[in-house]
């Protein structure tokens, strides 16, 4: 890959002046927007940046590039569908590719989760799940049963409703969010449990937090509990064994629906189509997914509903009722073509098996990172990992220097050819699932060196 020439400066200007990016750093009282690194080409697990560097995509896009970049089969399937039938109204019509994709997802979803509602991404999938829960309770004559129980540090999306259900403090700071529907449970991170508390006691406490919340709200008001199987962008928080199963039991006992947000954990990230059933032993009422659904090649999400949820609202109503919620691009044929091809490749190439095969090596290398003095905790499952850092070794992210460590590590790793996803005092990885053991070694070798460089830099600044 050659370096991009001077005329490239135009794009830099337009990017700054015209492209209002998500999570834009506005520097409202500073010098304006920062320069972003451009990339125009990517292949497999590598992104080639504007400086001609070949960089491992540690975050796998945004946890979505399951099959990696440059997959010609998916690109061809999308192009063929665009030529054949680029669009079909999901409101009044149907087309085979979208129906086939819905069936393929239902076949792979746990239990009786057979009703696949397509959306434009993860946020709209979660939004739809909540709207359906409310809609259903209205039909059942339970108009007060609307509160949604969610968790500190969760991430469920960027719409007004889903952002209101997200518990990452840094992202709520400058926004108004809904204060009526959400009810937040405290931190489920075992690393932050009180000194001397056993994991078993911590688990009991977390399950009790849920039950107490339901009792406090009243089962007549508590509609659903939403949880990521492994809490992802809020810091890769893996729950203690048995957590989800016991939470589901609590939900069932009090007639509260269980929404498993598998936007990150679905489609192979943890070595299975869905993690809920295979890894955590639960069949939730609703699963939301996106990202890996099309391996990042097309924007699409889905909320998958249990047949059971329709039994008591269908059939005996005296008048027609419409679920008046939907998107112009629900079930988009070109996205469905990408998704169907994605599933076909996963099965033909044994991608789930591959993830399960390389996971022990990935997790071993991740856990070895704990030997570095800067690192106070490592967490992970499947092909997801997180290192948590502190200069103080107390492990508590302070508002000051600790909170910037992730960004320093990312900068030092990029010099070495690795991108990571910084989050405060953490760095997170979720590489394309096609990564080989040798590439996992490259990734962790660079990460080790990057963390060492970052440590030296931070200490040289006298920040102890
Ligand atoms: N839920 C979870 C668990 C997520 O991680 C994300 C995105 N990171 C979303 C929902 C929102 O998905 P999207 O950005 O596709 O709208």
From TrEMBL:
Coiled coil: none annotated. InterPro entries: Aminotrans_3, Aminotrans_3_PPA_site, PyrdxlP-dep_Trfase, PyrdxlP-dep_Trfase_major, PyrdxlP-dep_Trfase_small. Its cofactor is pyridoxal 5'-phosphate. Belongs to the class-III pyridoxal-phosphate-dependent aminotransferase family. It comes from Leisingera aquaemixtae. GO terms for molecular function: transaminase activity. The keyword NAD does not apply. This is Aminotransferase. The lineage of its organism: Bacteria, Pseudomonadati, Pseudomonadota, Alphaproteobacteria, Rhodobacterales. Pfam families: Aminotran_3. PROSITE patterns: AA_TRANSFER_CLASS_3 (PS00600). Keywords: Aminotransferase, Plasmid, Pyridoxal phosphate, Transferase. It comes from the Bacteria. Gene3D superfamilies: Aspartate Aminotransferase, domain 1, Type I PLP-dependent aspartate aminotransferase-like (Major domain).
């Amino acid at each position: 890959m050659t370096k991009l020439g001077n005329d490239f400066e135009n794009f830099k200007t337009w990017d700054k002046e015209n492209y209002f990016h998500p999570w834009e750093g506005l520097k409202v009282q500073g010098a304006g927007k920062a320069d972003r690194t451009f990339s125009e080409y990517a292949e497999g697990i590598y992104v080639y940046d504007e400086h001609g560097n070949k960089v491992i995509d540690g975050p796998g896009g945004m946890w979505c590039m399951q099959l990696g970049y440059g997959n010609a089969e998916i690109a061809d399937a999308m192009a063929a569908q665009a030529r054949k039938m680029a669009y079909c109204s999901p409101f009044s019509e149907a087309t085979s590719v979208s129906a086939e994709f819905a069936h393929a997802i239902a076949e792979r979803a746990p239990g009786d989760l057979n009703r696949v509602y397509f959306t434009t991404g993860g946020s709209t999938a979660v939004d739809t799940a909540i709207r359906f829960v409310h809609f259903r309770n209205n039909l059942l004559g339970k108009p007060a049963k609307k509160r949604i129980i969610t968790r500190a540090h969760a991430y469920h999306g960027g719409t007004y409703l889903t952002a209101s259900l997200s518990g990452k403090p840094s992202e709520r700071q400058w926004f108004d969010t809904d204060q009526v529907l959400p009810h937040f449970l405290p931190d489920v991170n075992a690393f932050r449990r009180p000194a001397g508390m056993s994991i078993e006691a911590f688990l009991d406490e977390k399950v009790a937090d849920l039950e107490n919340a339901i009792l406090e709200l009243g089962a007549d008001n508590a509609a659903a509990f939403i949880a990521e199987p492994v809490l992802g962008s809020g810091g890769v928080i893996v729950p203690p064994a048995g957590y989800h199963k016991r939470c589901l039991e609590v939900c069932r006992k009090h007639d509260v629906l269980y929404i498993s947000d598998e936007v990150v954990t679905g489609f192979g990230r943890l070595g299975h189509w869905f993690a809920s059933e295979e890894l955590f032993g639960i069949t939730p009422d609703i699963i939301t997914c996106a990202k890996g659904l099309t391996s990042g090649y097309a924007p699409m999400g889905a909320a998958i509903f249990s047949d059971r949820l329709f039994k008591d609202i269908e059939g005996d109503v005296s008048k027609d009722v419409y679920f008046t919620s939907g998107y112009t691009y629900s079930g988009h044929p070109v996205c469905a073509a990408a998704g169907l091809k994605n599933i076909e490749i996963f099965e033909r190439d044994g991608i789930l098996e591959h993830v399960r095969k390389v996971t022990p090596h990935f997790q071993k290398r991740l856990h070895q990172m704990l030997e570095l003095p800067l690192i106070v905790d490592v967490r992970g499952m499947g092909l997801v990992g997180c290192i948590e850092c502190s200069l103080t070794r107390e492990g508590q992210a302070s508002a000051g220097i600790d909170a910037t460590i992730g960004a320093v590590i990312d900068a030092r790793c990029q010099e070495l050819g690795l991108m990571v996803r910084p989050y405060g005092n953490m760095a997170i990885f979720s590489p394309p699932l096609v990564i080989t053991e040798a590439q996992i070694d490259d990734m962790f070798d660079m990460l080790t060196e990057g963390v060492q460089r970052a440590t030296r830099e931070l200490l040289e600044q006298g920040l102890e």
